[in-house]
Amino acid sequence: MSTNTATSTTAEPVLEAVHLRKVFPLHKVKPFSPPQVVHAVEDASLALRPGRATALVGESGSGKTTVARLLARLYTPTAGTIRYREETVKARGGTALRAYRRHVQMVFQDPFSSLNPTHTVRHHLSRPLRIHGHAHSAAEETRLITSLLERVNLTPAEQFIHKFPHQLSGGQRQRVAIARALAAKPSVLLADEPVSMLDVSIRLDVLNLLSRLKEEEDLALLFITHDLASARYFAEETLVMYAGQMVEGGPSEEVIQRSKHPYTQLLLSAAPDPDRFGSSDQQGNSKGWLQPALPTSGSVELPSLINPPGGCRFHPRCPHAMPVCSQQFPPRTELGGGHWVNCFLYGAENKTDQARGLFTRPLWSPALPSVLTGCRPLPIRIIRRINEHNR
Ligand code: SF4
After folding, report:
1. Is the four-CA dihedral 228, 231, 237, 240 of positive or negative sign?
2. Which atom of ligand 1 approaches the CA of 315 most closely?
3. Is there a contact between 244 and 214 (Cβ–Cβ < 8 Å)?
4. Which of 45, 55, 80, 102 is a Cys-bridge partner for 3, taking CB atoms 3.0 to 4.6 Å apart?
5. pLDDT of the residue at 49
6. Which residues, 6+ apart, have CB-to-CB distance to 190 below 8 Å?
7. pLDDT for position 80
8. Which residue of 261, 299, 345, 352 sits with most ligand 1 atoms within 8 Å of its CB, as the best mutation to test the pocket?
9. Strands 87-88 vs 79-84: parallel, antiparallel or unpaired
10. What is the reported pLDDT for 128?
């Protein structure tokens, strides 16, 4: 079975995940009740390449952070393989895990809890330098800490080195967290929603900083976000996750401008983007291909991961769902140029009337927010009639 690792580059991956699976056992509430597990990640594959950013996009609870934590070895995979520079990673603790962490570092979402409030910036940066053997004297340590602070634009470094986290703004704390990750001299950086808790005004600064570091240090970067616009701005490749399953991926422009999976289209519909095809120019003329209407039906909630829907987990929300969708997970279909999708609507053998009519006869949903369509919501009985006709 092929993996979802295609990109347009030929560079060898630094870090690869192949068919990762993670389930978390739940504590029994009743003594004789059957054991239950949370199916957090199913069959996730990705490849991170030097000097490139890969965005992992999805709603809260879709399994993005679990994938990052599996890659950082904060969690042990239930099944699947992680390969660093083509070698299978088996480290569970001790020296081997420390050696792996030296190469693969993580930046956490919350800069307010990821730094210890009782320690100074100097302490936070000196620890990884000492643990990974990069500083051999106090003078060398000071020189390296100063250089780290300058690399993350905390200058003059002398002003920040003795400060405590509470004396820094959110953006400055996140820069210290990034400097701490860089102190290990990693080749892979896993950034878990690094800007989502920052003020809008400083998000772009931190994204630009990560982008510069990626290029200057040839870092392979995993950028976790629920915001497709920042994925498009920041990452060369975008992967879309839904309820623990990867559903679409490829070059960011391709995935966002020509999204195929109904879930990606749902995300895009909820994130207006003036550059996307189908929007209008200043004279009000349409720029071309129109984004399909928000394709949802039934529940608008993420399904329970304790008892997830069978087959394609999006089928309870998908207006194009077919009987086969609830029975098996769709195979990957290559769409060309590194763009792929896991959906029965695509692929030569999977062409259906629904697939052919996908963009010309979108189904309507009562959940379609009027603010996105610019129309007053239609009565449910009318929506039912339109959908009956389109089926
Ligand atoms: Fe919808 Fe079926 Fe495609 Fe899943 S596989 S997105 S349910 S059409």
Report:
1. negative
2. 7
3. no
4. 45
5. 96
6. 68, 71, 72, 104, 105, 106, 107, 222, 224
7. 95
8. 345
9. antiparallel
10. 94
Q: Judge whether 199 and 171 are in contact, CB under 8 Å.
A: yes
Report the Cα–Cα distance between both ends of the chain, in Å, rounded: 33
Q: In what order do the strands lie in the sheet with 332-336?
A: 104-107, 188-192, 220-225, 53-57, 237-242, 245-251, 339-342, 332-336
Distance from C-alpha of 261 to C-alpha of 343, rounded to nearest angstrom: 7
Q: Is 148 in the pocket of ligand 1 (CB under 6 A)?
A: no
Whole-number Å distance, alpha carbon 291 to ligand 1 midpoint, is 18
Q: How many other C-beta atoms are found inside a 10 Å radius of the C-beta of residue 388?
A: 8
Q: Which of 206, 231, 210, 233 is nearest to 220 (CA)?
A: 210
pLDDT at 247: 96
Which residues in the chain show pLDDT less than 50?
Answer: 1-8, 279-295, 353-383, 386-387, 389-391
Cα angle 227, 16, 179 (rounded to 5 degrees) comes to 60
**pTM strictly above 0.90:** no
Closest CA to 182 of 212, 137, 205, 224: 212
Identify which of 101, 113, 201, 228 has the alpha carbon closest to the alpha carbon of residue 165. 113
* pLDDT, tens only, 196-218: 888 887 888 889 999 999 999 89
So what's the pLDDT on residue 81?
Answer: 95
Please name each of the domains of the chain with its CATH number: 47-77+89-246 (3.40.50.300), 258-390 (no CATH)
Alpha carbon nearest to ligand 1 atom 7, residue: 315
Question: CB of 195 within 8 A of CB of 207?
Answer: yes
Cβ-in-10-Å burial (0-12, 13-18, 19+) of 336 comes to: exposed
DSSP 8-state assignment for residue 215: H
**Distance, CA 323 to ligand 1 centroid (Å)?**
10
